[in-house]
C-alpha cells in the first residue's frame, strides 16, 4: 500500500515557480490496481516519483506500508525502494552498457536476492523479448526498451509497482498482454500497482481511476469500463 | 514526396543478425498524410530513419523528391535534411542544455533561415507550451518534451515531416489538437507527413495507412475510419 497526505511539490521559486502537486491526499490500497490519468503536465510523474521517494516533497507526507518515506534519509529510501518497490520510468532509464537481460536482473543483483527463475521466465515470456535479451538498449526498438523497463520493475516481485505510462510505445496487443499480466499479479499475488496512463483502454484494466489536473486530485472512478 | 525501393536493412551479421527491413517498396506522395502501423519491433522506426537518410540501407534505394538519398554523402544528406526535412524522434532527442524555445528554433538557426514568426507562434500555441518555453528538457514533463520535439520538427515548415509516434505520451485532447494541426498543414500548405503510430485514433487523421510486420509491408488502407 502507498499513500500521500497533503503532498505539495513546488519547483523553482518566485515568478517562475511551478506548483506541480497541490496538497494531494490519496491512498493506494494493498492488492489493488489503481490508474492515474490527467492532462500532460498535470503532475502525474511528479506524484509517482514522490510516492517512491525518488523526489522530495515541498510539504506533506508519503507512506509505503507503515513507513513514512518522507522521514527517511537517502540511504533509508534507497533500501526501501530496493526491497519493496518496482518502478517503470516514462523514459525507461535503462543502463546503456548492460544487455536487456542484465537490465532486467539488475534489481535482484542490487538487492543481492536470488531470482525466482520461474517468475522471471514468465515475465520475459509475457513481454516477448526472448530473442532480444542479449542486446543493449541502443539495439532495441522503442517498444522493446519499454518492455525491458516493465520486466525489470516486476523482476523482484516487489510489494508495489509504480508504472509511468508503461504501454505508450506498444501496439495494442502487446500492451494488453502486459496489462493482463499486471492484473493477474494483483489478483493472484496481492501485488499493488499504481499506473499512470493516458489511454482509457489501459485504464480499464484497473480497479479504480484517480484523475489529476493542475496538481490536484479532481475525481475518482471505481471499476472503470470502456 | 518520399519513397523507398527494395529497401533492406540488416543489423549485425551471422546468427544474431536482424532483418529490420526486408525489401520494402513504398511511396509517400506529396501533400498526403500517411500513417505507418505495425507491431513493436516490426521496423517502423528503422524505415523512418532510412527514409530521412539518418541510417544507411544494406541494399535498395531511398528518395526525397527526385533526390536519391542513398547516393548522397554525409554532407549532402545533412544539407538535404536541414533544408527539407522535419523529424520527430520516438525518444525526442532534445538538446538538454537549450531551453524549449531554443530547441524549437534550432532547425532555423542551423539552416540560417529567418523564422516565419507567425507560423512559429501558431505552432507554439497549438502544442500548448506557452509558459514552459524558458525551461530546459529536464524541467519538462514527458508529454511537454514530446510537444517540444513536435514543434521543432514543424518550425522550419519543411517539405516533409517524419513523425515517430508523436502523440504516445499525450492525453487525447492534446494529441488530437496536434494531429488536427498536422492535417491542416497537409491540406492547406501541401506539406507531406509520414507518421508512425500505434494508436488507431491517431491513424484516422491520415489519408492512408501502411501496415508493417517483420520488416515487410503487408497491407494498405485508404482513408481509414475508426
Ligand atoms: N542497432 C541495432 N542493432 C541490432 N538490432 C537492432 C538495432 N536497431 C534496431 N534493431 C532491431 O530491429 C528491429 C526493428 O526495430 P525498429 O526500431 O525499427 O522497430 P519499431 O517498429 O519502431 O518498434 P517500436 O514500435 O517498438 O518502436 C527490432 O527487432 C530491433 O530490436
Ligand atoms: N525539474 C523541474 N523544474 C521545473 N518544473 C518542472 C520540473 N519537473 C517537472 N516540472 C513541471 O511540473 C509539472 C508537472 O510535471 P509532471 O512531469 O509531473 O507532469 P505529467 O502529468 O507527468 O505530464 P505528462 O503526461 O506530460 O508526462 C509540469 O508543468 C512540468 O513542466
Ligand atoms: Mg509524466
Ligand atoms: Mg519505433
Outline of this structure?
Two copies of one chain form a homodimer. By secondary structure, chain A is α/β, with parallel strands linked by helices.
The kinds of small molecule bound in this structure are: adenosine-5'-triphosphate, magnesium ion
Tell me the strand percentage band of chain A. Answer: 25-35%
> End-to-end distance of chain A, in Å?
26 Å
- Uncertain segments of chain A are none
Oligomer designation: homodimer
Number of distinct beta strands of chain A: 10
In this structure, how is the largest beta sheet of chain A organized? 6 strands, mixed
Query: Mean pLDDT of chain A, nearest integer?
Result: 94
How are the SSEs placed, and which strands pair?
The structure is a homodimer of 226-residue chains.
Chain A: E1 2-11, E2 18-28, E3 33-37, H1 44-51, E4 59-64, E5 67-68, H2 74-84, E6 85-88, H3 100-110, H4 117-126, H5 142-155, E7 160-164, H6 172-189, E8 192-196, H7 200-203, E9 208-213, E10 216-222
Parallel strand pairs in A: 3-8, 3-9, 6-7, 7-8
Antiparallel strand pairs in A: 1-2, 1-4, 4-5, 9-10
The complex binds adenosine-5'-triphosphate (2 copies) and magnesium ion (2 copies).
One magnesium ion is lined by residues 44-45, 90, 164 of chain B.
Amino acid at each position: 500500500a502507498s499513500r500521500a497526505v497533503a503532498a505539495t511539490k513546488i519547483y523553482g521559486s518566485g515568478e517562475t515557480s511551478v506548483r506541480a502537486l497541490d496538497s494531494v491526499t490519496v491512498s493506494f490500497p494493498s492488492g489493488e490496481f489503481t490508474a492515474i490519468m490527467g492532462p500532460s503536465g498535470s503532475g502525474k510523474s511528479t506524484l509517482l516519483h514522490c510516492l517512491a521517494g525518488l523526489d522530495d516533497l515541498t510539504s506533506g507526507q508519503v507512506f509505503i506500508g507503515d513507513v513514512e518515506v518522507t522521514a527517511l534519509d537517502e540511504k533509508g529510501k534507497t533500501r526501501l525502494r530496493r526491497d519493496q518497490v518496482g518502478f517503470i520510468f516514462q523514459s525507461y532509464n535503462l543502463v546503456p552498457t548492460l544487455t536487456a537481460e542484465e537490465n532486467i536482473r539488475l534489481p535482484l543483483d542490487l538487492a543481492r536476492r536470488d531470482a525466482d527463475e520461474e517468475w522471471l521466465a514468465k515475465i520475459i515470456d509475457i513481454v516477448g523479448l526472448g530473442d532480444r535479451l542479449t542486446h543493449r538498449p541502443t539495439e532495441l526498438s522503442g517498444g522493446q526498451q519499454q518492455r525491458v523497463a516493465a520486466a525489470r520493475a516486476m523482476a523482484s516481485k516487489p510489494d508495489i509497482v509504480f508504472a509511468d505510462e508503461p504501454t505508450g510505445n506498444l501496439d495494442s496487443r502487446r500492451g494488453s498482454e502486459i496489462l493482463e499480466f499486471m492484473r493477474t499479479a494483483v489478483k493472484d499475488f496481492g501485488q499493488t500497482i499504481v499506473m499512470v496512463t493516458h489511454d482509457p483502454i489501459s485504464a480499464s484494466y484497473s480497479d479504480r481511476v484517480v484523475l489529476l489536473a493542475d496538481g490536484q486530485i479532481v475525481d475518482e472512478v471505481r471499476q472503470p469500463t470502456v
